[in-house]
Amino acid sequence: MSLTLFSAIGVLAVATLIFSRQTVTIDGFFRGQSAAGQAPSLTTLVLSQVTTWIFARSLMNAAILGYYYGIAGTLAYAAYYGSFFTGAIIVDRIRFKHGYLNIQTFLAERHGLVGTSCYNFVIGVRLLSEVFANLIVIGLIFGSAGGSTYAIAVIAMAVFGLGYSMMGGLRASLKTDVIQMAALLIVLVIMTVQAVTGPLFDFSAIIASSPDLTSPGWVLLIVAGLQVLSYPMHDPVMMDRGFIADRDTTRRSFLHAGWLSIICILAFGLLGILAGLNKEDGEAMVAALTRLFGEPTMTLFNLALIVSAISTLDSTLSSAAKLAISDMKLASERLRNGRIAMVAFTVGGLGFLFLGSKDLFSAVAVSGTASMYLTPVIVFSVLLGRTDIPAWSYIVSFAAAMFGAALYFLESSGHIGWVAPLTGVEHKYSKLLVICVGVFVTGFTAYAIGIMTQRKNRAT
Q: What does DSSP assign to residue 81?
């Protein structure tokens, strides 16, 4: 690891600590308000939205999917960032049309305890996955999985992120996101300019890098299209930022964060595509990137991953504190209890990591599949405003999504092989598409039957 990278990490760490001065107010720690009770500005909210979603796992996934599946893979991953646009609609309806202060209250009024319990379970798992997935990337930058350097890097990053997150909560996260996003944008611009102006850049070859319309990249793009409506609602980091500013600022923050995030993902995926087009037989992506672009570019590559991992970790922990204390009300809303929740989620994320989970995109796919139980909720309850959905319809949709998420995890991990004999599809992304369609159909069928049953009961 170069001295330049270590120096940059040191400067970033010092700046982060300076910007995350301790927050002593409840509203600052849990809801991101300033000491004077003010909500964050549009610029702060946009940069925070982007940097908390352009996390280390995302940058690595964009490059990996571009490397193996060409432009289709990168476009598929970028499609998930359409969640900002669908998320803007969800927040606007729940908060400003229906008048609720969080998602849990909205679901509780429609389905009672089961509504909030299912939702809290899904977003709790989502937060844990964000902790371990970003720490995995940090570990792999500094060493091989399972090695001592890997473990030291993971634990050091976890302790650092936990430490400054406990100082300031959501307010500190918003403040540090600004400087972290500025650093990330500078790095991404430099890398993109190097890639576009270099001898390897061939626009026509990039466009033609996914010629087979049945390739896994295009299949994954369809999957993203199915998941992009529900995906934002199950992400507490995004949703939390939708409930802290006025309506106009909130709406514009989501829209600007959407196009900016997509550009960042496409820029990073470009490196993976170029490496894939010029790779040697059997060559891994990082080795190909190093050979083609040299150590200076790889230093920037690693710095981008580290910056995004730090930013995502503090946002994840602040959302975890809000979930456990403000939303689930597991303890009184005090700073001490929020910090205890942060420690618990950090330990849980480390536990997942050291249990051996290493597939970065599987975490996204499993999480996205689980979130699909919310698709009929969004269509019927959020958009159409229906209040006559029976609890059993909600439960069936939830159970189908949980089964689908578990099935994909077991299939992609090689533990079972049920989907191929039943459907004839072999690639894991084709299996994922089949599973998602099944979850989608089951959820909407349950809701349709539930509505008809309620209508019949009223008529009787």
A: G
**Two tokens at 27?**
């509203």
- Beta-carbon contacts of residue 335 (< 8 Å; ≥ 6 apart): 23, 24, 26, 29, 169
CA distance 215 to 276: 15
Q: In which region does residue 39 sit, left (phi positive, over 0), alpha (psi from -120 to 50) or beta (all else)?
A: beta
Dig out the tokens for 212 from the structure.
């087979």
Q: Which two tokens stand for residue 211?
A: 């010629």
Confidence at residue 172, expressed as pLDDT on a 0 to 100 scale: 80
pTM of the prediction? 0.90
Interhelix angle 42-53/148-197, nearest 10 degrees? 110
DSSP letters spanning 25-79: SHHHHHH---TTSPPPPHHHHHHHHHHHHS-HHHHHHHHHHHHHHHHHHHHHHHH
The number of angstroms, rounded, from the C-alpha of 179 to the middle of its chain's C-alpha atoms is 20
**Cα separation of 133 and 4, whole Å?**
25
Distances (CA, A) of 176 to 11, 48, 137, 141, 313: 13, 8, 20, 22, 11
Report the C-alpha gap between 12 and 172 in whole angstroms. Answer: 15
Cβ 154 vs Cβ 139: under 8 Å: yes
pLDDT of residue 370: 93
Residue 354 has pLDDT above 80, yes or no: no
CB 373 within 8 A of CB 436: no
Domains parsed from the chain with CATH numbers: 3-19+28-357 (1.20.1730.10)
Task: Give the residue among 418, 406, 320 at the shortest CA–CA distance from 362.
Answer: 406
**Chain position carrying tokens 């430099």:** 190
Q: Which one is predicted more confidently, 116 or 298?
A: 116
Range 448-452 average pLDDT:
94
H/E segment holding residue 187: helix 148-197
